[in-house]
TrEMBL record:
<keyword id="KW-0288">FMN</keyword>
<keyword id="KW-0285">Flavoprotein</keyword>
<protein>
    <submittedName>
        <fullName>LLM class flavin-dependent oxidoreductase</fullName>
    </submittedName>
</protein>
<keyword id="KW-0560">Oxidoreductase</keyword>
<dbReference type="InterPro" id="IPR036661">
    <property type="entry name" value="Luciferase-like_sf"/>
</dbReference>
<dbReference type="Pfam" id="PF00296">
    <property type="entry name" value="Bac_luciferase"/>
</dbReference>
<feature type="domain" description="Luciferase-like">
    <location>
        <begin position="38"/>
        <end position="344"/>
    </location>
</feature>
<dbReference type="InterPro" id="IPR011251">
    <property type="entry name" value="Luciferase-like_dom"/>
</dbReference>
<dbReference type="InterPro" id="IPR050172">
    <property type="entry name" value="SsuD_RutA_monooxygenase"/>
</dbReference>
<keyword id="KW-0503">Monooxygenase</keyword>
Length: 405
């Protein structure tokens, strides 16, 4: 059992005052629990899914990118028209779109959504996947390309007169002025755990994203990003985005019953390479984020209040895969632990994708917002974290290990 931290009502100095919630949009009902062989878009399902995010109080949705997936720009535009408030996050690999064209596309999306566009730049963590679309640069050069890409995006959005450029990766003459965003320059997010990712993210990104990992380890990584930002002379530091795959039920005990059922199904799905891009994710992962996730999973299955790494272990840490397990109150308390460490963007997406998104909106988001409103009104923490201990209590550990050999 993890020792419970001392709790009082003092708000930690590292805590974010506000939080916004992100989910990933799904185009059809295929899931890791119940894979359906399809590469298409189920339009009715997609409409229902994104509207459920808006109704549930989510603020953003990520439109993922892969060599064999739907185009993230087009899907983001659809999200913009199907919702009034959700901010679409376009996942973009710099090798797929010339930066000035990307700036034009993103500004167009921003105009159509009246300032809701966000871009998440993916430098590329797998050489074979990059090669599928003709990108043969080694990883260190991919990150240097991302750095140049960020500079050109911002110049295309803000330069008042034509400009030329001759860099390591891009060259052009007399471009501009470019097509402008709706208002302010569009937020740029990057993620990753490599040295190059930290350097570029700390120096240039508006948002830096992490997968869910133990609290103290994540806090150290946040401090690392912010130190790089300050050393670069920045007056503001990147916002911190952290991603989890919560498994919730009415009680902690029921949540653990669901979690054990889920992981058995997920393990079977991945062993058969029956879902999405799994056939491209066999063997030891190349990206540092997946390596870290698997390292945590090897050391322990449970961390802190509710972080479960078994889901990462059975999926070879293929993408964001660590879970938070418990009742809505326990999971909300765990999310608040990360907010207290400095996260201000929290991405939660489930394994039963649509049903989980609806449940999060009904049962988890309101608890987090209620606690943050209490803090704002009183200057003190509420009692949610003190009352719902999760792995800091003996019963939770018993539920987590029930039925295991």
């Amino acid at each position: 059992m993890t020792s419970a931290p001392a709790f009082d009502q003092t708000i930690p100095g590292t805590a974010s005052e506000e939080v916004e919630f992100i989910s990933l949009s799904h185009l059809n009902p295929s899931t890791e629990l119940n894979p359906i062989r399809t590469r298409g878009i189920d339009l009715n399902y997609f409409r229902t899914y994104v509207r459920s995010l808006e109704e549930g109080g989510f603020d953003y949705t990520l439109l993922p990118y892969g060599s064999s997936t739907a185009d993230s720009f087009v899907v983001a535009s659809a999200v913009g028209q199907l919702t009034e408030r959700i901010k679409p996050i376009v996942a973009l690999r710099p090798n797929t779109t010339f930066p000035l064209v990307a700036a034009q596309k993103l500004a167009t999306l921003d105009q159509l959504t009246e300032g809701r566009a966000v871009v998440h730049l993916i430098s590329g963590g797998n050489d074979a996947e990059q090669a599928r679309q003709g990108d043969y640069l080694p990883k260190d050069r991919r990150y240097r390309r991302t750095s140049e890409y960020i500079d050109l995006l911002r110049r295309a959005w803000t330069e008042p007169a034509p400009f030329s450029h001759e860099g390591e990766f891009y060259q052009f003459d007399d471009f501009g002025p470019g097509f402008a965003p709706h208002g302010s320059p569009i937020p740029i997010s990057i993620g990753g755990q490599s040295e190059e990712a930290f350097r570029i993210g700390g120096e240039k990104a508006d948002i830096f994203s992490f997968w869910g990992e133990p609290l103290d380890d994540l806090r150290g990584e946040i401090e690392r990003v912010h130190a790089i930002a300050r050393a670069a002379g920045r007056t503001t530091v990147p916002r911190i985005w952290v991603t989890f795959r919560p498994i919730i039920a009415q009680t902690d005990e029921l949540a653990w019953q669901k979690a054990h059922s889920y992981v058995a199904k997920i393990s079977e799905t991945f062993s058969k390479s029956a879902f999405g891009k799994q056939r491209h994710q066999q063997g030891a992962p190349e990206n540092v984020g997946s390596q870290r996730a698997l390292s945590f999973a090897e050391k322990a299955e449970l961390y802190d209040r509710a972080l479960w790494t078994r889901t990462a272990a059975v999926t070879n840490a293929a993408g964001a895969s660590t879970a938070l397990v418990g009742s809505p109150e326990t999971v909300a308390a765990a999310i608040l632990d990360y907010i207290d460490r400095g996260a201000s963007l929290v991405s939660i997406r489930g394994y039963d994708t649509l049903a989980d998104a609806v449940d999060y909106g009904r049962h988890v988001l309101p608890l987090v917002h209620q606690e943050l409103a209490h803090r704002k009104a009183t200057g003190r923490r509420g009692t949610l974290q003190a009352e719902h201990l999760g792995n800091y209590a003996e019963d939770y550990r018993r539920y987590a290990t029930a039925g295991q050999a």
